[in-house]
């Protein structure tokens, strides 16, 4: 843990931004870097319906470009001397975050919980809960 980077997965929400403060604090404590990860979902489309004016691949590329712009904006706001690396992946958020967390380069994951309860929690798998249960490294879930 003490020599590996902190992974901070983000969806660019306010809740995720709150968790970034904890990630920076932990990185400063252990004198390690932060890897910022954003996962773009793979859009689905059926060419037979002819509804989309662009292909799912073009849509995914546009989503990745928008995420990269948000990453640059976020990095410009950070005032830290920490080594920061940004990664944008395409796919399922849980699978991609776990792949990064279990890569051997990550010492801790700091992730935000969106705090779903009741029926919403039952119907939607909690990303933070899945990461906490399946990651090989420690996971700090921030509310």
Describe the protein's architecture and organization.
The protein is α/β, with parallel strands linked by helices. The protein has a single domain, classed as Rossmann fold. Helices cover 43% and strands 21% of the residues. It is built from five helices and five strands, in the order βαβαβαβααβ. The protein has helices at 14-30, 56-77, 93-101, 118-123, 127-134, and strands spanning 5-9, 34-40, 84-90, 106-112, 139-142. A five-stranded parallel beta sheet has the order 3-2-1-4-5, with helices on both faces. Strand 2, helix 2 and strand 3 form a beta-alpha-beta unit. Helix 3 (93-101) packs parallel to helix 5 (127-134). The longest helix is centred in the middle third of the chain and has 22 residues, at 56-77. It is globular. It comes from Lacimicrobium alkaliphilum. Belongs to the universal stress protein A family.
Characteristic terms for this protein:
Rossmann fold; Rossmann-like_a/b/a_fold; 21% strand; globular; alpha/beta; 143 residues; 43% helix; UspA; Universal_stress_UspA
Question: How are the secondary structure elements laid out?
Answer:
Elements: E1 5-9, H1 14-30, E2 34-40, H2 56-77, E3 84-90, H3 93-101, E4 106-112, H4 118-123, H5 127-134, E5 139-142
Parallel strand pairs: 1-2, 1-4, 2-3, 4-5
